[in-house]
Amino acid sequence: MDDLTLSDAERLRYARHLSIPGVGEEGQLRLKRSSVLLIGTGGLGSPAALYLAAAGVGKLGLVDDDKVERSNLQRQILHGESGVGRPKLESAKERLREINPHIEVVCHESRFTPDNAEKLVAAYDLVIDGSDNFPTRFLSNDACYFARKPLVYGSIFRFEGQLTVFAPHLGGPCYRCMLPTMPPPGAAPSCAEAGVLGVLPGIIGTLQAMEAIKLLLDVGEVPLGKLLCYDALRTSFRTLRLSPDPACKLCSSEASLRSIRNPETLTDPSCTMPDIPSISVDELDARIRSGKPYVLIDVRQPEEHAEHSIPGGKLIPLDELPGRLEEIPRDGEVLVHCKAGGRSARAVSLMLESGIPGAINVAGGIDAWLKRSGT
Ligand SMILES: Nc1ncnc2c1ncn2[C@@H]1O[C@H](COP(=O)(O)OP(=O)(O)OP(=O)(O)O)[C@@H](O)[C@H]1O
Ligand SMILES: [Zn+2]
């Protein structure tokens, strides 16, 4: 691909950009030479990727290891009916190619983890975080901080969304200045638990694409030190000030001196999930196969339990748990699972506090169980 010129086809395609002051031919070429890493191709990542592709950002890197579920289609508009059951990145790539064949789409079919974060971030000009969990957000923040790359942050909850850009090297705070310690697992319910109006990630993800394009073109002002809060029910946009935290573990001057010598901050144990006892689905399988009696509690909703369940699992939905603690044995192991590990982590915390010392979380929940058994 020639990065230095626009072909006739590209000139036609981007005609409405070429006439805007601030973009023009120079800006369009700039976009063509640019690259963006998108973490997650779900509710936020879908619209962001679609618009960046259409706008002609030359290289889009997608990182996600998930498969398309039918309940994703209400908002994850990169994927369609034909994608159900297939890897999200497959359907994303097809759709993006259809939107714009002039750009390169690179699929990193894995999770974004401490093992690959630095390498992935290094290969792109900026990062859009479209993930739905705190560990990933802390990690994208740290990796971008060390790489001195802007991070376009978005998050949503039911009818409310938030957006900002973290780029301490350009001024302003980092994510850890806003949220110094990682909330316990399950503190923020996932879309699966809380529900989300499908248009909302469309709005926030599109705003993320806009901020990415402004950063790439170096036009306007990006919201450094400002958290934009969108309330869909009141149709209001409010902006809160976010200041750098002088005690920030990552970006304060004292911490940054430490972290230059210690790039391990990416996996700093003080920044990982608080410890609750947990076992993997492989260990759970071994327990079941051993033939010894075991107690397994499923804290999902009855309709989720009816769809798929793990042998021997007793259903006690999380919202009923406080009133049904008596049903759970006080001695021995009590294995607890949900869909992905969030609700069960909260259930385990509650059980440990309520005198059930053997409560153990099944990490990854039934999603991991089904993946493992290839269902
Ligand atoms: N660390 C990570 N690395 C790569 N992708 C991630 C990471 N964390 C989250 N994601 C992806 O981000 C996307 C978030 O999407 P979204 O919040 O819309 O919901 P979902 O997890 O697909 O669906 P639901 O919550 O309804 O089950 C998912 O595709 C998920 O796989
Ligand atoms: Zn900070």
From TrEMBL:
Q: Which PROSITE patterns match?
A: RHODANESE_3
- Which superkingdom heads the taxonomic lineage of this protein's source? Bacteria
Question: CDD domains per the record?
Answer: RHOD (cd00158), ThiF_MoeB_HesA_family (cd00757)
- Entry-linked SMART domains: RHOD
Against Pfam families, the record matches this protein to:
Rhodanese (PF00581), ThiF (PF00899)
Organism listed in the record: Haloferula helveola
Protein name in the entry:
Molybdenum cofactor biosynthesis protein MoeB
Ranges where the Rhodanese domain occurs: 290-374
Q: Which InterPro entries match?
A: Rhodanese-like_dom, Rhodanese-like_dom_sf, ThiF/MoeB/HesA, ThiF_NAD_FAD-bd, Ubiquitin-activating_enz
Q: Which NCBIfam families match?
A: PRK05690.1 (NF004281)
What does UniProt list as this organism's lineage? Bacteria, Pseudomonadati, Verrucomicrobiota, Verrucomicrobiia, Verrucomicrobiales
